[in-house]
Amino acid sequence: MTDKGLPHIVDSCVLIDYTSVNPQILSLAVQHIGPVIVTVQVLDEVEAFDETWAVKAGLTVVDPDRNLIDSAVSDRGGLSACDKAIFTLAKHEGYICWTNDSKLKEICEEAGITAFWGFEMMLVLCANGHLDRDTALSTARGIYLVNRYIADKVLADFEAKIKLM
User: Fold this and answer.
1) Which backbone phi and psi does 97 adopt, to 5 degrees?
2) How many angstroms separate the CA atoms of 31 and 109, rounded?
3) CB of 12 closer than 8 Å to CB of 81
4) Is residue 3 pLDDT above 60, yes or no?
5) pTM score, two decimals?
6) Cα–Cα distance between 150 and 1 in angstroms, integer?
7) N or C: which end of the chain has fewer CB within 10 A?
8) In 10 A of CB 87, how many CB atoms?
9) Contact 38, 10 (CB under 8 A)
10) Which of 100, 78, 94, 86 is nearest to 44 (CA)?
11) Residue 5 CB: number of other CB atoms within 10 A?
12) Phi-psi category of residue 27: left, alpha or beta, with phi > 0 → left and psi -120 to 50 → alpha
């Protein structure tokens, strides 16, 4: 599903979901999938977490060049400034994007950038024996309960996929 070792960049939704329900998932991703990148802009959007917390969790914090952000803001419609920076970093640095934002995922895929839904991180971890199915299911259900934007179908699809593993 992903290339081991390639950097992965997460949006604020993925960061909030995992840190509010099971922050261990992000640490497991760092250990077993590859470096997990978070921008200072994402951390600014997520008031409960700061750079110190992110570094302790094993995440790599980056502060994109201002010119890079400005170019991202000017050339992609339908995304927040933060998501435009994520898109631009993924494109320029070769990062894999993890998001819960359908527009960001769509734009990444149109540009040839590998992009995954946030829950898919747990599928990768389970498939490689680094996370058990019960923990993945309880984490997904917990995220579903706290994130009103996670649709019933998203949870049902995840449950179906994880049960096949």
Assistant:
1) -100, 130
2) 26
3) no
4) no
5) 0.89
6) 22
7) C
8) 26
9) yes
10) 86
11) 8
12) alpha
Specify whether the backbone of 58 is left (phi greater than 0), alpha (psi in -120 to 50) or beta: left
pLDDT > 60? residue 42:
yes
Q: Annotate 15-46 with b (16+ C-beta within 10 A) or e (fewer).
A: bbbbbebbeebbbbbbeebbebbbbbbbbebb
Question: pLDDT digits over 118-147, tens only?
Answer: 999 999 999 999 999 999 999 999 999 999
76 — pLDDT class (breaks 50, 70, 90): low
Q: Give the residue ranges of DSSP H helices in the chain.
A: 12-21, 24-32, 40-45, 51-56, 66-75, 81-93, 102-110, 120-127, 133-146, 152-163
Query: Contact at 8 Å (CB) between 133 and 139?
Result: no
Across the range 83-88, mean pLDDT stands at 88
The torsion of the CA quartet 162, 128, 23, 41, rounded to 10 degrees, works out to: -100
Give the count of beta carbons closer than 10 Å to the beta carbon of residue 154: 18
Side chain identity, residue 147: N
Q: What is the CA radius of gyration of the chain?
A: 15
The predicted structure's pLDDT at residue 8: 95
Structure tokens at 71: 């170019």
Q: Which residue has the higher pLDDT, 156 or 48?
A: 156
